[in-house]
Write a structure and sequence with these properties.
Blueprint lengths: L2 H16 L6 H7 L6 H10 L6 H9 L14 H13 L5 H8 L9 H33 L3 H30 L6
Helix pairs in contact: 1-7, 2-5, 7-8
Length: 183
Amino acid sequence: MTMADLNRETGEMLAKCLEAPRQNLLRDVMSYNDSMTISQVVKFFERQGVVFTKPMIQHYVRVGLLPPPEEKRRYTRFHLLLLAVVERLKGNYSLDDIAAVFSGFAPSEALIGPLQDLMEFSAAAWRETLDALVNKAAETAVEIGLEEQETRRAFESLVLLGLMTQSAAAKRTAGTLAGGGTE
């Protein structure tokens, strides 16, 4: 098995990994300008394929993950953006970790564009990192000189090792920045 074979076979896998499952979510959040009730927020995310219930959103406000709604019942585009971020992060981080991140800034419409830019930059940087990792793993797997099936398994193991190493480093860094030390 050659490096070209491994790269070709993993192209589809990478495309799936790099696709945001709800890639239009941020765009749709950014296009919304009116404030809305909690029921409208739930329906907005429901149309995006994201489940947020009224009790979930109310809990997020109670624990400080989201700022209170304006006029006690109106949620703004800033709330939608924070919920979109929560949706992306909650599978990998606890709500306490996410709340610690959010505590670093006060609600402001002025933050919406910069936060969106940062998230898009991070996604692009991740795509480049993942591409480089896959290429290095393919190169290393081929260099080992194993049989075709063994080369495939070695390649997959090398990609997983690289991802796990990066994930551990990222989690330690995030914990340190959040004041939690290392885990």
